[in-house]
Write a structure and sequence with these properties.
By secondary structure, this protein is mainly β. It is built from 2 helices and 26 strands. The N and C termini lie far apart (96 Å).
Length: 363
């Protein structure tokens, strides 16, 4: 048994020697080795832009020139349709292309027959203008967009004075919160063309002004005594009264009114900038009677206690209030804080003054 084992071991060793020698001779790539020289690694070529960039077009040499860029209709009737024309010429060397026309409101409608004009060619923009219903100056614009490189947007201006066929006197009333009947004076409506008319309806802002009218009263002139609701006037200090008429050329006419507040504060809003928590800022607020009436303050408070009045100085129709504003801790990341101060006057309305603060930010 020992002899056979020895022979077998010798055979295995001989076969192993020949296997190793054969592998080295043939350059067996058991571990990635090779006798061939390493090939150089090619650098990756930059990716080609598959999107073809369009060539840049040279600037257009078209040039638009208007004979006039403003048209004044002069006096026109209320609610009337009016037309005007703006003539232009392409004084450039390239074809003029007008992209679009745009009016500033629906009452101004521009029109153009075509969009392209050869060098030296003339064109015309027609504008239809719908006049307002009420008397007074009016102005609108039309924008012309083209390929004129130096003047791509041209503004055309339309002006007019709307002349009503019925005249109101006064055209504007100044009312008062303390005068009897708001200090209103009679309103007279007069036909300017001799045509008779009736007043069929009267309306005012917030029902501040009421007028007794008779739709069966047809005449060249009407005189009305307006009645003022002072309580409503407190809420609607500025507004108008509109008369609806049967006049063939003037369907309605408007009279404006305005009225001062009974009391005014200056400033009307307290603004605090670069506020820092813990740093108190002072502001002076003046409370004034616009009608030179005595002022009596009953109490002053604020919603959040941020605003405090530390000093008061009184004259007959004014209070000077010195306030302190203490910026509170920031609510989260909010950059602002707010509060409202309430001033209660004896026998009068409550006056509110808001305060807005903006915290200082670190840059």
């Amino acid at each position: 048994m020992n002899g056979r084992f020895c022979k077998l071991l010798v055979v295995v060793l001989i076969l192993g020697f020949f296997f190793v020698a054969s592998s080295q001779a043939k350059g067996l790539k058991l571990f990635g080795k090779s006798d061939e020289p390493a090939k150089p690694i090619k650098q990756a070529e930059p990716a080609k832009n598959e999107v073809n960039q369009p060539p840049v077009s040279p600037a257009s040499n078209a040039k638009i020139k208007f004979d006039a860029v403003e048209h004044d209709f002069g006096k026109i009737d209320p609610d009337s349709m009016n037309n005007c024309k703006f003539t232009f010429t392409n004084v450039g060397k390239d074809v003029l292309k007008i992209d679009r026309l745009q009016g500033t409101c629906k009452c101004t409608v521009p029109d153009l027959k075509k969009k392209e004009y050869a060098p030296g060619e003339t064109g015309e923009i027609t504008v239809e203008f719908h006049a307002p219903k009420y008397q007074g100056d009016t102005s609108q614009r039309v924008m012309v967009f083209s390929n004129d490189a130096n003047n791509s947007t041209v503004y055309l201006v339309i002006k007019a004075y709307v002349q009503a066929k019925v005249e109101a006197s006064p055209e504007q009333m100044t009312l008062s919160l303390i005068a009897p009947n708001g200090g209103a004076s009679p309103i007279t409506l007069t036909s300017l063309d001799g045509k008779k008319f009736a007043v069929v309806k009267v309306e005012s802002s917030g029902n501040v002004i009421s007028v007794a009218s008779n739709p069966n009263d047809i005449a060249e002139k009407h005189v009305f005594n307006p009645v003022i609701d002072v309580n409503n006037l407190h809420k609607y200090l500025n507004g108008s009264i509109v008369f609806t008429l049967t006049h063939p050329s003037c369907g309605s006419i408007k009279v404006q009114y305005n009225c001062l507040k009974e009391f005014e504060t200056s400033p009307s809003v307290i603004i605090i900038r670069n506020a820092v928590v813990g740093e108190i800022q002072k502001r002076t607020v003046y409370l004034t009677s616009n009608y030179n009436q005595p002022i009596e303050i009953e109490s002053i408070s604020s919603d959040k206690g941020i605003i405090k009045v530390i000093d008061q100085e009184k004259t007959e129709n004014q209070y000077k209030l010195v306030t302190e504003i203490a910026p509170p801790l920031q609510d989260g990341r909010s950059p602002v804080f707010s509060d409202t101060m309430h001033i209660k006057l004896k026998g009068k309305e409550l006056i509110n003054i808001s305060c807005r603060g903006f915290y200082k930010t670190d840059k």
